[in-house]
Design goal:
Largest sheet: 5 strands, mixed
Structural class: alpha/beta
Number of strands: 10
Protein name: Leucine-rich repeat-containing N-terminal plant-type domain-containing protein
Strand order of the largest sheet: 3-4-6-8-10
Number of helices: 5
Shape: globular
Radius of gyration: 18 Å
CATH architecture: Alpha-Beta Horseshoe
Number of domains: 1
CATH superfamily: Ribonuclease Inhibitor
Distance between the termini: 51 Å
Helix content: 10-25%
Organism: Eleusine coracana subsp. coracana
């Protein structure tokens, strides 16, 4: 099973298991609670089964998790690429990934606003969140502070449409 929100902030497999390799009763209970909170199926779908098998440690960088790229020193997540896996849950927990440069979570079912993410990831250069359930306003002041931002794809979400500057001026 894959659950959203954890040490990384987006996804983590079942909590750490006991010495026999299987999850402890407590870990299974926590995983079930997360599963219900994020409306995940009990059994991991084929598309995410590889994550559950690979994401078996509590450390995304030390465990070399699939879809996660870490800094050269192995201490910070710099890229997260998990497109089209039907992942669900809020984006807000990603806001603590201050060294994140690339975020590719297009084609999932992630929700929430961009506020915490854009304010908490000042090094973001590539942002691909199309075909999700993102909503709310795009904080212009947070976007303005993203000096490295080169590409953004937010298509097919529930975001307000931008109006041309000329139209806003006429309506004022």
């Amino acid at each position: 099973m894959v659950v959203l929100v954890g040490d990384l902030g987006v996804l983590e497999p079942d909590a750490a298991g006991d010495r026999s390799g299987g999850p402890t009763a407590r870990a299974r209970g926590e995983a079930e609670r997360h599963r219900r909170a994020y409306h995940l199926p009990s059994a991991a779908p084929t598309r995410t089964a590889f994550l559950a098998a690979n994401w078996s440690t509590g450390d995304a960088c030390g465990g070399r998790w699939t879809g996660v790229t870490c800094s050269a020193d192995g201490r910070r997540v710099v890229a997260l690429s998990l497109p089209s896996l039907d992942l669900r849950g809020p984006l807000d927990p990603l806001g603590h990934l201050a060294e994140l440069r690339t975020l590719d979570l297009r084609g999932n079912r992630l929700n929430g606003t961009l506020d915490a993410l854009l304010r908490g990831a000042p090094n973001l250069a590539l942002l691909y969140l199309s075909r999700n359930e993102v909503s709310g306003e795009i904080p212009a002041d947070a976007v303005a502070r993203l000096a490295r931002l080169a590409r953004v794809d937010l298509a097919d979400n529930s975001l307000p449409r931008a109006r041309p500057a000329g139209r806003r001026a006429r309506e004022a």
